[in-house]
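Example S7 (structure tokens).
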């Protein structure tokens, strides 16, 4: 208890690169993967074409990924997120590999929205959470991608209207039938992170992003934006 109060122990850290993947995160983070079969065959441990043929009969993408996860752990009990990243790189899914690599090398990336809100609420009563804007945004990026994908076009339009993203980012979102909304949201988040890194005032840029998210009148986006503002000392 004393260690927790002193801040020496991190609350609910996310997965690390050498941890074994769990089904929920593996399914969520690999959702942008259009063709999972080459990825499965690149996983170390011995997933075979016969395994793939059996798995692809499952009725939904979630059930297929769940079956793949189960089979992979059977043939490779030491499976890790590092193996996932390497397999993605082998099948040329480099952008997705980088996104997952960022999540598992940041120990706070797997933290849930509720955990974020609990930490931010307790700190709001004392002092702002230390950390630069880039780290703060990355901490929330996984959940932001999920929720922005549900309100993609309105969010993108308003971010552009406020001068926070370039026209090219808007054009990428408006392309129809090429990517899922989740993939578009992931690309939008990557653009936002790059814009923040190049900003002369990263803190103000992130504050402006939060105001746009709050204006979406989307409950979860509002919660995340409020949590970020708490961490920046703005609430």
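Recovered sequence:
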């Amino acid at each position: 208890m004393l260690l927790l109060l002193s801040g020496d122990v991190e609350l609910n850290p996310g997965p690390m690169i050498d941890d074994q993947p769990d089904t929920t995160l593996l399914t969520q983070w690999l959702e942008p993967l259009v063709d999972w079969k080459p990825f499965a065959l690149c996983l170390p441990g011995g997933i075979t074409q016969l395994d793939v043929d059996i798995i692809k009969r499952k009725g939904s993408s979630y059930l297929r990924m769940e079956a793949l996860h189960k089979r992979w752990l059977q043939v490779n009990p030491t499976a890790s997120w590092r193996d996932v990243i390497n397999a993605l790189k082998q099948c040329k899914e480099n952008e997705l590999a980088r996104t997952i690599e960022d999540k598992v090398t940041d120990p706070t990336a797997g933290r849930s929205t509720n955990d974020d809100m609990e930490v931010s609420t307790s700190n709001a009563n004392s002092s702002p959470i230390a950390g630069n804007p880039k780290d703060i945004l990355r901490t929330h990026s996984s959940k932001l991608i999920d929720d922005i994908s549900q309100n993609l076009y309105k969010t993108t339009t308003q971010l552009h209207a406020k001068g926070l993203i370039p026209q090219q980012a808007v054009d990428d979102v408006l392309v129809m039938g090429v990517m899922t909304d989740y993939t578009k949201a992931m690309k939008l988040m990557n653009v936002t992170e790059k814009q923040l890194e190049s900003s002369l005032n990263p803190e103000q840029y992130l504050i402006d992003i939060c105001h746009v998210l709050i204006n979406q009148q989307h409950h979860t986006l509002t919660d995340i934006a409020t949590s970020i503002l708490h961490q920046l000392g703005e609430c």
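Notes on this example. The domain at 113-231 is CATH 1.10.533 (Death Domain, Fas).
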